């Protein structure tokens, strides 16, 4: 015959096992995040197509300013300041 404390213990163990499953967290669904991500590139795509030549010119000026900063041995804040001023003058040497 099963005693009362054994029944209580068995009931408690079974309750804890079921409670663990009830309180387990479920992962958030990925579906709501996907449409927001897909909508953003559509907004920026026309802007990229509108001025590809300008972007190439800016990149060339940026590269030229980087080369000049390397030649001068600039690092950190001085390099950042130099490149900023250099890009304003379109990469022309000072």
UniProtKB/TrEMBL annotation:
InterPro entries: P_starv_induced_PsiF (IPR011690)
Superkingdom of the organism of origin: Bacteria
Record's compositionally biased regions (Low complexity): 27-50
Swiss-Prot/TrEMBL keywords: Signal
Region (Disordered): 27-94
Signal peptide interval: 1-24
Protein name: PsiF repeat-containing protein
The species this protein was found in: Afipia broomeae ATCC 49717
């Amino acid at each position: 015959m099963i005693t009362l404390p054994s029944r209580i213990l068995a009931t408690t163990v079974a309750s804890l096992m079921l409670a663990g499953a009830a309180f387990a967290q479920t992962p958030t669904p990925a579906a709501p995040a996907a449409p927001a991500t897909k909508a953003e590139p559509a907004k920026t795509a026309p802007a990229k197509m509108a001025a590809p030549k300008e972007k190439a010119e800016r990149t060339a000026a940026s590269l030229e300013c980087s080369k000049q900063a390397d030649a001068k041995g600039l690092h950190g804040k001085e390099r950042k300041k130099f490149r900023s001023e250099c890009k304003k003058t379109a990469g022309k040497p000072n």
